[in-house]
Design goal:
This protein is an alpha/beta fold. The strands form three sheets. The protein has a six-stranded parallel beta sheet, sandwiched between helices. Helix 1 crosses helix 2 and helix 8 runs parallel beside helix 9.
């Protein structure tokens, strides 16, 4: 059997294509007898209207896209989960685009998503976290934003004036440092994160500032940059422990790094938090899956995703939309931090 189209339905029902479209989309009243005739033909052929055809007619695709750099990092799926829940409530479906940290792939996705006529794009991570993003990469996003609503989550693009929703990560890092100082720690280290990524830069700067307020330094030999992974956390913690002096507490750039740090310390025979305290960042599901459970800073990831879709929805429908929304982090104290041991 050939594929039945809206034109075939109209021909057999002896009505116009626009009348069939009005019945399918409930966009205008149709006489009851005419609607009944059309529905009989639709049911006869078990006709399913083509979503692409609908989008071309209505100039709406009913889809929102999210571009993210690493689907294996729990932070990003948590943001997506918040977005997807709200999108479903509003009748939207999602394209999820994993760039694997490649800016060229982000560019490809931007082009593809414009071709697919998505109604909004949520950008998380990748180029929007570069401290010095190349102008060409910025231009690609700003040009796309001229025709498609775009919201940046936990990032920014210089001079772009795009809509942003983010958690104050600097405030969260300061909370972590203050928590350790309050526990009596004076020898505090920081590990993880790439030094050209804004999320790393903001956290390190905030930790240094908070420690300085208490007359404490963040010693250069206790500051080690690297990836955001468990493997990196393990390697960087071992690097700390191989030094001449050992810190009494470590702040990690994210929960992944913190879990790697816990593994390394445990393998070296250290007890956490008796011998060394460890703080993560993100409050991902892994934070309560590890032993000891991880003290960490919550970024309100679900809320970030939820608000991003709310902002896209406002922009699509011409509703008032704030340019910037800032969420406040919270410190979640669990078992991986404790009182500093007296020397």
């Amino acid at each position: 059997m050939k594929n039945i189209t809206i034109y075939d339905i109209a021909k057999e029902a002896e009505v116009s294509v626009s009348t069939v479209s009005r019945v399918l989309n409930s966009t205008a009243p149709v006489k009851a007898s005419t609607k009944e005739t059309i529905m009989r033909v639709i049911e006869k052929y078990r006709f399913q209207p083509n979503a692409l055809a609908r989008s071309l007619i209505k100039k709406e695709s009913g889809t929102i896209a999210m571009i993210l750099p690493d689907i294996t990092n729990p932070f990003f799926p948590e943001v997506f989960w918040g977005s997807e829940n709200v999108a479903r409530e509003k009748g939207y479906t999602f394209f999820l685009c994993n760039s694997a940290g490649e800016y060229s792939r982000e560019s490809e996705y931007l082009s593809i998503l414009q071709e697919k006529r998505v109604e909004g794009i949520i950008f998380v991570g990748g180029r929007i976290n570069l401290a010095d993003c190349p102008p060409q990469l910025i231009q690609e996003v700003t040009e796309a934003a001229e025709s498609i609503p775009i919201v940046l989550v936990n990032g920014n693009l210089s001079k772009s004036n795009l809509h942003r929703i983010y958690t104050d990560e600097a405030a969260g890092a300061a909370m972590a440092a203050q928590h350790l100082v309050d526990l009596g720690h004076r020898d505090i280290a920081f590990i993880g994160g790439l030094d050209h990524i804004t999320t790393t830069i903001q956290k390190v700067k905030a930790v240094k500032k908070k420690l300085k307020e208490h007359g404490l330094p963040l010693r250069s030999e206790w500051l080690h940059f690297g990836e955001f992974s468990i493997t990196a956390g393990r390697e960087l913690m071992n690097k700390l422990l191989d030094g001449e002096e050992r810190p009494s507490a470590v702040i990690c750039v994210n929960d992944f790094t913190a879990i790697g740090a816990i593994k390394a310390a445990t393998e070296r025979g250290l007890r956490i938090p008796d011998d060394i305290s460890i703080v993560g960042f993100d409050d991902s599901p892994l934070a309560t899956a590890v032993i000891p459970e991880l003290t960490t800073v919550t970024q309100n990831t679900f809320e970030l995703g939820k608000l991003a879709v709310e902002r896209i929805y406002q922009m699509i429908n011409g509703l008032p939309a704030k340019r910037t929304t800032v969420l406040q982090p919270e410190l979640v104290v669990r078992q991986s931090t404790g009182t500093a041991r007296r020397k």
